[in-house]
Amino acid sequence: MTSPPRPTLADVTRGRILYGGDYNPEQWPESVRREDVALMREAGVNLATVGVFSWARLEPRPGERDFGWLDRVLDLLHAGGIGVCLATPTASPPPWMGARHPETLPRDETGAVVWYGSRNHFCASSPVYRDHALRITADLADRYGDHPALRLWHVNNEYGTACWCDVTAAHFRRWLRDRYGSLDALNDAWGTAFWSQRYGDWEEIIPPRRAQYMVNPTQELDFRRFTSDALLECFTAERDALVERTPRIPVTTNFMPLFVGQNGWTWAEREDVVSVDLYPDPADPERDDGAAWGALVQDLTRSQARGPWLLMEQAAGPVNWRGVNHPRPEGLTRLWSLQAVARGADGICFFQWRQSRQGSEKFHSGMVSHAGPRGRTFRQVRQLGADLERLGALTGSPVTARAAVLHDWNAWWATLSAGRPSNLLTYERPLRAWHRALWESHLTCDFAHPESGLEDYALIAVPHLYLLTDAALDNLASYVRGGGTLVCGFFTGVVDTDDRVREGGVDARLREVLGIGTVHEWWPLDEGKVQPLASCGDDIAEGAVGTLWREDFETLPGTETVAAYRGGELGGRPAITRHPFGDGTAWYLSTLPDPAALRALLSRAAGEAGLRPPLPGLPTGVEAVRRGGRLFLLNHRREPATVPLPAPATDELTGRRHEHTITLGRHGAAVLREAPPA
Amino acid sequence: MTSPPRPTLADVTRGRILYGGDYNPEQWPESVRREDVALMREAGVNLATVGVFSWARLEPRPGERDFGWLDRVLDLLHAGGIGVCLATPTASPPPWMGARHPETLPRDETGAVVWYGSRNHFCASSPVYRDHALRITADLADRYGDHPALRLWHVNNEYGTACWCDVTAAHFRRWLRDRYGSLDALNDAWGTAFWSQRYGDWEEIIPPRRAQYMVNPTQELDFRRFTSDALLECFTAERDALVERTPRIPVTTNFMPLFVGQNGWTWAEREDVVSVDLYPDPADPERDDGAAWGALVQDLTRSQARGPWLLMEQAAGPVNWRGVNHPRPEGLTRLWSLQAVARGADGICFFQWRQSRQGSEKFHSGMVSHAGPRGRTFRQVRQLGADLERLGALTGSPVTARAAVLHDWNAWWATLSAGRPSNLLTYERPLRAWHRALWESHLTCDFAHPESGLEDYALIAVPHLYLLTDAALDNLASYVRGGGTLVCGFFTGVVDTDDRVREGGVDARLREVLGIGTVHEWWPLDEGKVQPLASCGDDIAEGAVGTLWREDFETLPGTETVAAYRGGELGGRPAITRHPFGDGTAWYLSTLPDPAALRALLSRAAGEAGLRPPLPGLPTGVEAVRRGGRLFLLNHRREPATVPLPAPATDELTGRRHEHTITLGRHGAAVLREAPPA
Amino acid sequence: MTSPPRPTLADVTRGRILYGGDYNPEQWPESVRREDVALMREAGVNLATVGVFSWARLEPRPGERDFGWLDRVLDLLHAGGIGVCLATPTASPPPWMGARHPETLPRDETGAVVWYGSRNHFCASSPVYRDHALRITADLADRYGDHPALRLWHVNNEYGTACWCDVTAAHFRRWLRDRYGSLDALNDAWGTAFWSQRYGDWEEIIPPRRAQYMVNPTQELDFRRFTSDALLECFTAERDALVERTPRIPVTTNFMPLFVGQNGWTWAEREDVVSVDLYPDPADPERDDGAAWGALVQDLTRSQARGPWLLMEQAAGPVNWRGVNHPRPEGLTRLWSLQAVARGADGICFFQWRQSRQGSEKFHSGMVSHAGPRGRTFRQVRQLGADLERLGALTGSPVTARAAVLHDWNAWWATLSAGRPSNLLTYERPLRAWHRALWESHLTCDFAHPESGLEDYALIAVPHLYLLTDAALDNLASYVRGGGTLVCGFFTGVVDTDDRVREGGVDARLREVLGIGTVHEWWPLDEGKVQPLASCGDDIAEGAVGTLWREDFETLPGTETVAAYRGGELGGRPAITRHPFGDGTAWYLSTLPDPAALRALLSRAAGEAGLRPPLPGLPTGVEAVRRGGRLFLLNHRREPATVPLPAPATDELTGRRHEHTITLGRHGAAVLREAPPA
């Protein structure tokens, strides 16, 4: 007996780009709700996310249910032609749960209780919490499973609370027994021979709590794995309750962007629809940073989804959780929304529909801001709705990338322990720098798990994967041997799955692929310090420098030194190398080159692998992405930009035809249907 | 039956400026005390504050009393002609209280106990603490109520300890029941519909403890109100015990300057005498900052007192709680003391008489420093005593101000929650900048509560009142309508008394007064960033800039744009406006102008309102204030300054007559009796 | 009956410089151990420290013993001719101890438990911990006392964990009873009259826990004394158990360098061998800082040992606990090791032999690094072994210094309380600046306790001793009276042993010696601020400045003002003075001069006292030290340096003879046997 296939995002979109946002009508008198629906229709909204934080309203006292108000909300939305993404309210338990069951409250590393009064105050290991969460979820599914407005289930919200309490400790021990089977295996994996940490009894094991000095790094790594899994158990339990009752409604939970707390590859597999919340900073001087960050998150989310995905939350204006919260300059919300569609989004939603007047997020913008329907924000929201309406044909279409950046949460987690060569080397820093270099070079890329099939990619970039499993190492070797191009960053392949250093400091298989011999020393750079590089050919410009990291290593015969260190202790030693291996090529970057040098190196490697931008001659700041037979052009600068077109094309946003060039205004965008090649 | 009128500060001064300080003879052998009294007489001291930290000495074991040493101290002071300000010792309970009654110790937000070993370690909600405090207070009053040296009661010391313990939680719930009557009202006020925070039972409510994310801001606001009230209950209970026993002795408690933890308006109403502790930083580069800060605190304290007040603590030299504690350059103690008298003080006291040789404050200066009577400090103390002796005629006289700055602790508290547009916008920053601009323009001002009668003021300045009640808004409108001039700063009138955002983002009544329409966006500036301004007339100089904050708002017809934003996203939009309303005028400053521009704008508004400095042509750095028919001239700079006099005048400090000018030396001061106008 | 004399370091060295490191074979399969011994022999290793973190391996369950593996390790080392420094494993109790006896875990100031999972997680006051520690210690001594490889006992590791728990509180009270005898004496010493802290019962006294404000400084001072003593009790208990069982094996415990947590004078007296761990930062810009820091620690350790000492731990490459961990440039490990020998070390050891592949210190270097025997690190390790082999004749020989720097942990601890004139004035800052000035002037110095016999020193330097006992003050006066030269830094002699300020702010005896009268004010400088100085002679150069501190004080007749303050509040007042007293001279430096000025002043004082460098004309960056008839020349710079020789000499490292000069390469060193004077 096989299960029926699960529904997908296409069952939600039904041929229209989804458009809408979180809708929390319980904050408002019923009179406001009719205006809400009218304004939603005016703005082209077709999806409202309801109930994310409604638990205390739905279950005012333990076991009671108050569904009447929600019945009316769903009926009203349905009457207005607006679909509903219905949330389980389990991210924020009512005060009565913490007051009556204090053991459901998390504790931090020091043992301090994390109280209610905010949100996300539940211990994922608590059976009491889980039981209450499943019961309200089941009751919601029973009541609204057949409601005609229901399109999508939204489970919980931004899962991410870690806990160090005793209930968690017992759960962690069960998880470790499953992972290791025996205490000997655990002791071996954790290296407890060091510092007298050998465990003689499972009951001795605790989460990594406040200690006198550095805590065992594998204990920390496993605790991060466990925490992700414990939260995932909460998710899958709710999902199963929903699937059982409403098999035709897909299920999602909204991720935080590039969030460390969940293993995004594992989580995405358990969802029908992958969705993400994305809040780039619109602060003026980092304008391009916002777009680069957006592109990274969108590429990652598309890769997790293996196809179209849903932008569950963004802001129509400022957020309220940064130090200084900048509004969005004119045009930016539209530009960034179209960027998401270009990179695979089939839906553009906001947190939240109507800006709150009370509570912790009242200065977080809404689609209807405090200024109301006559305000600047709502004007832009209406305009965006009209734009998206024109792009419905794109739903379901893929984005094809021939390059991939390898990414793995296990490697990320392993970098978070103390006691590494440099605390300036975060996991994200090289990852973001490399992705940005590819993005600025107009080389659309996916993200991929290092053990996944890579054969369809012409170029694989590994900015920094400190931890690589045996399977991943074999996978990389076989990829290059088969003709692929690998560009590998420093301090990669250093430890195995248990954070155990590979013999020789870097795995021998990887060194063979890269053509490097003895690795003598990691030689990190202080903040703000640079290391001049000497190009051995013309790949990188005079004046190029390395940052953040250096290494003292030997090359093997047959390895080309592309650039060497110039001056200092490492003067004359190889910095960047290129090595033919099997039918492919492997590059090694033992430093983080400055942005221009990094772009140049990645462009050369990509060019050798046969990759090039969608258009030649793209001006700086203009992003170009192909999706579903359309070419998206996105101007991230304040200055207008003119893009030469190889062939005439029509902008689907305006219906206008452009012959030789198209000029994009400040933050302007175009979605070109290209003429078939002559 | 009406109560007899309460005694006042005049009952303490009896025609002499009070002069003295905290006197803690229990730190010294009895032999030192005779020298103390002799030196006090030499210095002109007439008031000694005794017993502030004597609880453990007075009650060495629970219920015991040891008054003998204090009898002798009071007798000795009286014999020397020195009045006594007698303190209840309740700020610092003896170790036995914390050891025997650990529930009297505060707990912080994380639940950690705040132990004894320092001071101010009591939970204001603890019945055990309160009971012990009242008993020692009553016994002191019974024993010393008739002592001839007794002039003033000093209750506790710098009330300010907050607590998050369970006893406090129960007290907080009682306070909330009183405030709201019903849980529905509380849920509505706190906006608990957001984030599933609805309370179903009073017992669920707790203080805002350590949480996973931002805590409900109205819960925080109410907890700040509650904490001020809980401390005030402690004060009033002690006061009542004193008043009952010694009806002719006035009662005070010493405030910290511009202290966030007490609602200063409410507290001052409960005191017979308002007193404050003031410690400006004498560090060289901020010399004027110290004077500006002093002026602000003095204006506020005078306004709380509605007349003369008492400077209860200042330092004769360095303090010991800053990072680097600078001594006071020659002349500064005299200058700053005379500034206090100029701004309404009828007493100048120090912490403390004799510098400690042990304990946490042994490097806090005293009137008799470690260098002893031959030291530089005591020389200056003697000189100041002689100066003050000459000014006794001023006691009881008011300072008349025709401008007022509005200030409210509720607005301050509401700005302290997280999640606002910019965390750079503190409550104090615009308040201090505006007051300083008025002070530098020689425009003496009061502080006033926004609901108080404003009709006697020609100019009302509102630097930043994020929270304004309905009554305050009506008060402001009626003030302008009646012909007043209002200068209103940004992000004002945004929320109501429950921190609920007003419709449209700013209260509609206030927008009508100011002549502004839709408010589209708050547009804060990053630290160090400035926004050029374009003056539409000649009010502000070329090159003027805004800092900290900007707004995107519409003006209504009839509103004059005084200055516009120049360049950037807001280029060309109004920045500073002026609007005739009723018989008055309302200015709006949507940014914080640089100091010169702010002075120019406030001076113009003040000038239109008919206000001008006490003297024309005052040199920079010279403060001029009128009190009781005298003109105080205070030179805050190291360079001598010459002030032109419109008419001959006599300096009461020297008895010298000055015809056309008077020259003040470095940090020099003069108190001029002006000749009647010819 | 007298005890037999204790064995000494000479019993360990037996005529060879010790060379080796921590050896933790339990991290490795037995197969690796044979390679270890072979490599040790290749490198000239003759001492391995074993068992430091082996408790959980030796006692896998409470009361069990597993010695077999350790038997094999000792036999194997012995067979290879390598001596063993055997550690008691008590620095890191096994997890079962914390799990079964949570009262053995420390608690921090806030009451939070300090959990196991790292190391050093024991409460020194816990009888349960102490009992278990003694039992494993005794069993180790019983089993290995007669093992032929055993050379030295290594007790615990870097003692330093403080604890604030209730068990500690009771222990602290017992310690206080011993110190004070009566509560009255304690109340007097602590100055509890201030802030109502008087204790009425011993049971009320607690460690200085988290409080509302500054905690009583004498309570803090005593708690630091107590913590050092409580840890010392742990050490001496283990030592006694070892001495009883193995009277011929000397005992050490490894100190952290200039570590605040132990009273190093008291501790060193209880050891047979004094050893220290030393990890200078090899970061490029601070190259000389590393050498200066090393010289300081080496001088201090030699002074604690009163003769040769053991460098127990250094790093062969990078450590892993700094923010950025730099490897050591070529030659630095050799240079710094020879510096230690020059300054009295009879042994050079590393943490650790083989770099870990797991656990918290896997990126801390080892003598055999991850790169293995072919790596750069092991190559340098072998070379150093060969160099040290040539210097065996030096073992046991002293280093003679005719200058001493006074240092006392009590003074250090007293400076750690809050509420002093400037928190920029740490204890170490002047200490390090003064020692560095002496080091750069090639004036080899000891450290000495201020109460110790000083008559053999021509120059005594007191950079900053805030606390001086009566005995120390008398000692200093008698030293100068007897003809000595004292150079005394600011804010010295301010408090007595109880942190009670001396009358007049500085002890009268000291003021008499220094020739200073009233001290009016401490006048600290802000960070980065300087105070110009005016030289009254030609001692310091034009442009010299003071930093950190200034004072306003009077000189007595007969006191020479060497330099005065120039400009500012103190312009024209004395800054640096010189006073003939008895047969000697006393200098006073009331500010911290810039490095060149400080060198000039100390050189003049030293010159007057008859001290000069070992060689004239030493180039900058070349250190010269005499030991055992050899002259060590050490080039700390990257540039080669040529040193003129007064007479021909032979370099023992190379066997080469040098006539008129010797040239040292980058980081080069020479050990010259000087020809006898002609």
Task: Provide structural commentary.
Chain A is globular and about 75 Å long. Chain A contains 18 helices and 28 strands. In chain A, α11 links the parallel β7 and β8. Helices cover 31% and strands 19% of the residues of chain A. In chain A, α11 packs across α15 and α12 packs parallel to α13. Chain A starts with 9 loop residues before the first helix and ends with a strand. The relative contact order of chain A is 0.09. Chains in contact: A-B, A-C, B-C. Chains A and C meet through α9 and β14 of A and α3 and α5 of C.
Radius of gyration of chain A, whole Å:
26 Å
The CATH superfamily of the domain at 403-608 in chain A turns out to be: Class I glutamine amidotransferase (GATase) domain
Q: What is the number of helical segments of chain A per DSSP (H or I, 4+ residues)?
A: 18
Secondary-structure-based class of chain A equals alpha/beta
Spatial ordering of strands, largest sheet of chain A: 11-10-12-13-20-19-18-15-16-21
- The CATH topology label of the domain at 403-608 in chain A is Rossmann fold
CATH architecture of the domain at 403-608 in chain A: 3-Layer(aba) Sandwich
Give the overall form of chain A. globular
Report the CATH C-level class of the domain at 403-608 in chain A.
Answer: Alpha Beta
Roughly what percent helix of chain A? 25-40%
- The portion of residues forming beta strands of chain A comes to 15-25%
Greatest interface by residues involved: A-B, 62 and 59 residues
**Alpha-carbon distance between the two ends of chain A:** 52 Å
List unreliable stretches of 5+ residues of chain A: none
Number of strands of chain A: 28
Mean residue pLDDT of chain A: 96
